[in-house]
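Re: Re: token formats

Sure, here are both.
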Amino acid sequence: MANFLFKVPLDFSWPIGKIWEGHICPYTCEFDGERYSWESDEIKMLHYAWTPVNPSPGEGFQAWEINVFDDRGENYGGYPESPVFSTLTELCEWCELHGVTYMDSQLSKEKWMEILSGKPFNLETGS
């Protein structure tokens, strides 16, 4: 699982913790622990051609958790972890106050600012 910053419309409304519909691939297969079993070659082809769709971009800031990366490096299975905020600072304050975790660690507002603004961050050293 990974935390991501999404820029969404300020009035974007999707339940916190509910997987975003644009991240649900309609073309799936069965996995028995060893191999994939596709209903047909067409379904398999459609699965590999499918691309997740993120929410429309906007001026708001929202923390998301992405919990699935497929073998093409595409992310999906994501959902909002926070409400939408008008500033990154407000979002980071909310993440600290509500105990949103990064790799199972609770972080300060300042550390959230570093992570969500794209600065490199080492959880082990805290820098």
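Second one below.
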Amino acid sequence: MEQRVFYVKPEEEKNIPETIKVYEILPSKGLWEYRFSKKYKIFKLKSIESEGEWLKVVYELQLFS
């Protein structure tokens, strides 16, 4: 199953959301211009683990459009 992993400082633990929405980014006209498509994936929080001075936050794919 597709996952997203983030590393955050322990003091930010209270700000970790239960779900995140990740939009597909598509190139636009210019080389450095991008636009968001209407397609997205929703990831749900799977685990929070301590790794030294960081917290490893793992999200797992729940749904995609």
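The chain has one domain: 3-64. The CA atoms of residues 11 and 61 lie 25 Å apart.
- S.
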